Amino acid sequence: MSCRLFLALWPDDAARHALLGLQAGLIGGRPVPAANLHLTLAFLGQQPANMVSLLRRLSQRWSNFDCLLRFDRLGYFRRPRIAWVGMRDIPEPLVTLHRSVQVALAEEGVSQSGAHDGFVPHVTLLRDAEPLSQRDIAPLMWHARGVVLAESIVQPGGSQYRILSSDG
User: Fold this and answer.
1) In the chain, what are the domain boundaries?
2) Beta strand spans in 49-147 (E)
3) pLDDT tens figures, 69-104
4) Bridge partners (DSSP) listed for residue 47
């Protein structure tokens, strides 16, 4: 048995509400459900179920992460047809967190699915989206705290995310 897993930052209620407001102003795609909004640090893909306890322990290493994130740019990834909100300037604590997550996963021999060199921190707002020009927007603030381990459960209507470990 295996689980489709990822490590992420999960928005609090205020940030989620602001993200939903931004999402409501976009057209031409399938909105990501409110409960699924997040910022991925590492997509691990299918992992054996026996890896969950290790990954829970790993996620606790970053339980004290605390950073104010300023989302001020809309963007679009062509290949997966995703409209997203991200940051013009990525705060150093977020860069450091991402690097730390990558190193810890490598040290534990945890493989990542679709890992690539560039870190583009973002929150996916629409899937199957129409092309969108990258542009600056009024800042949306999110006080990110802690890292969660989450599972993506694929269902006919789309994926549902379930938090497996959280201390944020």
Assistant:
1) 2-165
2) 66-77, 82-86, 122-127, 135-145
3) 999 999 999 988 999 999 999 999 999 999 999 999
4) 3
Task: Specify the DSSP class assigned to residue 70.
Answer: E
CA distances from 119 to 71, 91, 103, 109, 122 (A): 15, 12, 14, 20, 9
Sign for the CA dihedral angle at 5, 7, 13, 14 comes to negative
| Active-site choice (38, 98, 116, 143) | 38
pTM: 0.92
In the block, which residue shows the tokens 């860069």?
95
CATH 4.10.240.10 fits 2-165, yes or no: no
Sheet strand arrangement including 135-145: 30-31, 122-127, 82-86, 66-77, 135-145
Catalytic residue list contains 116: no
| Residue reference for tokens 């490598």 | 106
Q: What is the three-class DSSP state of 91?
A: coil
Is residue 98 among the annotated active site residues?
A: no
